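FAQ: What does the model actually see?

It sees only this:
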Amino acid sequence: MADYRIQEHPILTVPTGPEIQFTWKEQALKARPGETIASALFAQGVRVFGHHAKDGAPMGIFCANGQCAQCSVIADGLSVKSCMVQVREGIKVEPLDGRAALPDPRQGDLRFRDIETLETECLILGGGPAGLSAAIELGRAGVNVVLIDDKSALGGKLVLQTHKFFGSIDACHAGTRGMDIGQKLEEQVRSFESVKVWTETSALSVFADRKVGVLRHGRYHLIQPQILLVATGARERSLVFKGNSLPGVYGAGAFQTLVNRDLVRPTERLFVIGGGNVGLIAAYHALQAGIQVVGLCEALPECGGYKVHKDKLVRMGVPIYTSHTIVSANGKEEVESVTIGKLDPSWRTVAGTEQTFKCDTVLVAVGLEPVDEFLKKAKEYGLPVFAAGDAEEIAEASAAMFTGRIRGLEIARQLGRDVGEVPPEWHRTAEVLKARPGAVVTEEIPEENQGVFPVFHCSQEIPCNPCTSVCSRHSIRIEGDDILGLPTFVSDGGCDACEKCVAICPGLAMTLVDFRKSQDGMALVTVPYEFPQATLTVGDTVTVLDTLGTVLGNVKVERIRAPKFADHAALVKLRAPTEIAKRIAGIRVQQPWVTQPMEQWAARVADDEIVCRCERVTAGALRSLIRAGARDMNQLKAATRCGMGACGGKTCPSLIKRIFREEGIAPSAVTDLTQRPVFMEVPLGAFAGVASDEQPQETAPKAKPGAFQGGL
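And it is asked to produce this:
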């Protein structure tokens, strides 16, 4: 079979070493150690994992985060989510294909053990930026903590983020790549003896007796914390459109998991839906992995993400269609093309504006919803609870880290530790980091044509200031007392052309222009380049563009260097005519022919869009019931099974509520779905104490009541 692994990446190290063998439909395949079944299948070119029992529709991945059930397969006789289970030597994998009753593969008598209750001062759900930051503050205060995460590695979405962070260096490691920040935070957490980390552990529910049920290495535990911190992050929203459940339609988090965590190239040609930071960054990550990005569409008149993210895509050759929406994803077994159309002021597609683009993947990046069911249930049952990160409020990971610090200090104080009040400036910094992008101003191009100086191609106020921190001459400054202003160059301080400001800028929005050795009306321009250096050599002629993506001309590459302070990025020095030197913002990396639409566009079929993926319930079926008077989502569930599927009603409720709104029903008139008592899937035998052959990794002696009691 074909190999779809990434062999070269500008930021990530491609793993080498022995592989393990498994089978898919009795065909021998190979996987990397620690790789999930889903990633191993994608690496071999398998994108259809099975077919739905109801209508035979093909199924693949969507979230790759354990939140849905689209990727379910049978592994050694048991139904599992392929994105959450690692490949084992010799494991036999096959499609689920609607099989409901499976034989128990275990032989002999079952062994049982007592379900013990572990007591701890604080239980943290989630080992992402917020949970880790809180654990650090609690560890410093000597609080007994259990931190659980359902992945094999800590860091949450930081693991997937190869780009450099915004914010400030002091507050949230600005200018450092997300994956490196995650590693630093994990190292700090593991240095505290009072903090116990349980990976590959799923929180199941919060119960009326204020205990939290968790499944760890196949064994069921009850944990009774004095305080619960919910730092469970967010799940991706979906969209209702024709073909939305085809293999090849999936979320940005799933894409980044495959590409940045597992170094799998899951697509050749990608189209992105959604112009927030998630979609913009995912498109950039695709370009870095050698994937063609055909285009990006955003329903609003402007992208909601940082303008610097949009700008770098445009100048690299990716067209962005604002006031456009997806009409359909087209294909029989997998995505073959995507159709988009322009929206009118009433958010209806304008007939005749449809365009169809050839692609094999449609990336849905239309926002996030907090994973807050544990928070709500803890409040209902009176368990003292705090929330941090996206579970509290959707924002950037930099803000999640800082709110995690604040919650950690607040919890330590509530537990009686002498840690003092939370400094007022912490709250101020947290609000700044949560700030939405400000107004866009006209880009200012310096007038002088002599000396050496930086040019700032950022023209929107966002929380970011690492360029001011690395300037040794303090010549780069931001007016005011926060980090939301735009940077300016103070020429009195001078510039020593160290290029550190160019290297650290998270938005790749800074260049350095040098007129000191100007010859024949030419100047030297240093631009950042985060692509494999083998794709560019000294002497090459490259196409340069301005901030808005306008082609300025073709220039020669004078020099390429990759200093350590650039952190895997290259600094490319171009020799350019004086009249365009200061306007150069970047190098085009994708040719225009990649993004051309097809001659014919595929027509949309109305009302058969899938709303509930698990049970294949259409928008038309729900609309007919709503028009007949249904106002209770539980009534819709009883009639159609929407929300009754394997995902546990996590992905479709917001889509159902949207249909109510489209039908003119006020949210106050709609009765919400009754929440399931257990939020994640678990074998019933676990509640009975069925012993597993797998042993947990961490152990510790039993502690006195009120302290952490060690692993079993």
